Amino acid sequence: MGRTGGAAPGPIDAFLADLHARLAGANGGKPATYIPELGKADPAAFGIAIATVDGTVYAAGDAGRRFTIQSISKAFVYGHALDRLGREAVLAHVGVEPTGESFNSISLDQVHNRPFNPMVNAGAIATAELIEGADPAERQRALSALMARYAGRTLELDEAVYLSEKATGHRNRAIAFMMLNSGMIRRDPEEVLDLYFRQCSLLVDTRDLAVMAATIANDGVNPRTGIRALARTHVPDVLTVMNMCGMYNYAGQWSYEIGLPAKSGVSGAIILIIPGQAGIAIWSPPIDGNGNSVRGVAAAGEIADAFGLHIFGTHPNVRNAIRAEYRGDRIRSKRARRHAELRLLEREGARIRVIEAQGGLYFGSCERIVRRATELSVQADWLILDLRRILSADIAAERLLAGLAETLAAGGKTLIFAHVDADGPTAALLRALAGKAEIAATREAALEYCEDALIAARLPDVATRAVAFADLDIVEGLTAAEVAQVRALAIPLAFAAGEALAREGEEAPLFFALAEGSASIRLPVAGDPARSIRLGSVGPGMSCGEMALIERGRRSADIVADEDVQAWGFGIEEMDDLGRRRPAILIRIVSNITRDLAERLRLANNEIRALER
């Protein structure tokens, strides 16, 4: 009992333990006897398991005892048929209509010449025929591989149950031969039935079934192995059929009361799917007249009620799709700017807007984001959509956001997506946006891009790649003669892209002013020399490492050239000597430096205030 991985019990563990204890003594129903081996099951056996889409499994009771999967296998084989042949081809073999009859009824859709749905025996036999392979042995291997992808391990065959089903499955034989007579199946019915009996006789435990259910909930990917078992595009098809037909002629009442896609089996198991969240499995052999576990139905009802899981009774809150909005005159990139650039960003930075999204991207949330972005585009020329807190994105998100990019581009606006990863929840969105929008690795990079574009458009003379010595920020306010005295102390330096101007912890004999190129101030991550945090960057005309002049300590961060850099170095001792000879010059240089430091602090404070809202 308890969670896998040895974790300390939590509230879900306690809930399942209490639920199991309360329902363990429930009476009603009896194990299935029409397959003799199933009639030998322990009627007191009872297991519950929940598997989340991140692979955590909670369990209670007899969750480790094995039993045969029976009709629950139908959902997985149906999904496999869809993956192999596609929706239209599978629909030609088996329909999707509820029958309102028992799972083993001898009833076929004569109008369309196919079984009514894949969850009744007739439909399951038809989908078993669709398992690939040139001969029975190959088809058995394909079936085994399919179930292993869902369970995360190879499932064994219960030989006794398989032989019992094969010896007593005359009703299924009648169904199969009727289907052969009508052209609904084409292979030898005995060979198709043999594979179907094997399919139903695979051994699982409740934990296995919870993981298999969670695989469907996780868009078809096994949450514990990362292996895809079902194409994402066919997950809605499987869930829809499970919801309509998975509980046989109890399906309507189940959907009304429980409200989750489910599939039951006559061995006493039931699986439930909470799309995007978890899979639930319950096993207890006594079944009711509909073929569903008595304790399973009761436990499912309590779980659904306790956590409000009915799919038509819960919905995401689209009002929370936008976490925050920022203006470019209040939130800046970490790129240090020259004074003329700062004044421009103060005046016109509001033409840059940031929308920080959160949660899942689906129709409702994306509609709200698209609507707000369109409203902001009236005042803004650059919009940044920050997706770092996005947990999922569906096809609606792909279409709506790609459409937003095209619409804004047609109006002369630039839309930039930040934090769109190639291997995360936004991977498909990244592919949909290819060629339609700008993509930035981070919000910081997107802000810097927009600021550069605004500065280039408004201050083409300032936005230059090189500056003369007299235009350095540190000598602003000095006379030409005073500038000449400072230049006499400067050391010309050159750094290749990636080369360090300074390293954290080193002595600091110099500070620098860049004439050309840019450099980043980076803080190394402790214990990981390959990683660092970018604290800021400087460009032509700006200084860095200037704390050496103010506090005379060791370097507090790395300074690394982003590209080839031409710089001037100023020795601390030489500057001290200048201060003794010409104190007014040094006072002006220190004043310019502290003014820049104060500006950076002010911007940092603005960002903190904005982010705390």
Strand and helix map with partners:
Elements: H1 11-23, E1 47-52, E2 57-61, E3 67-68, H2 73-85, H3 87-93, H4 121-128, H5 136-151, H6 159-168, H7 170-182, H8 189-200, E4 203-204, H9 206-217, H10 235-245, H11 251-257, E5 262-264, E6 269-274, E7 278-283, H12 294-307, E8 322-327, H13 339-348, E9 352-361, H14 363-376, E10 382-393, H15 395-410, E11 414-418, H16 427-433, E12 438-440, H17 443-458, H18 480-487, E13 491-495, E14 500-502, E15 510-516, E16 519-525, E17 528-538, E18 543-544, H19 547-551, E19 558-561, E20 565-571, H20 572-581, H21 583-612
Parallel strand pairs: 9-10, 10-11, 11-12
Antiparallel strand pairs: 1-2, 1-7, 3-4, 5-6, 6-7, 8-9, 13-20, 14-19, 15-18, 15-20, 16-17, 16-19
Q: How would you explain this protein's 3D organization?
A:
The protein has 613 residues and is an alpha+beta fold. It has three domains: 4-307, Beta-lactamase (3-Layer(aba) Sandwich), CATH 3.40.710; 318-458, STAS domain (Transcription Regulator spoIIAA), CATH 3.30.750.24; 469-612, Jelly Rolls (Sandwich). 41% of the residues lie in helices and 18% in strands. The protein has 21 helices and 20 strands. The strands form five sheets. Strands 2-1-7-6-5 form a five-stranded antiparallel sheet. Helix 2 (73-85) packs across helix 5 (136-151), helix 6 (159-168) packs across helix 8 (189-200) and helix 20 packs across helix 21 (583-612). The longest helix is centred in the last third of the chain and has 30 residues, at 583-612. It is elongated. The mean pLDDT is 90.
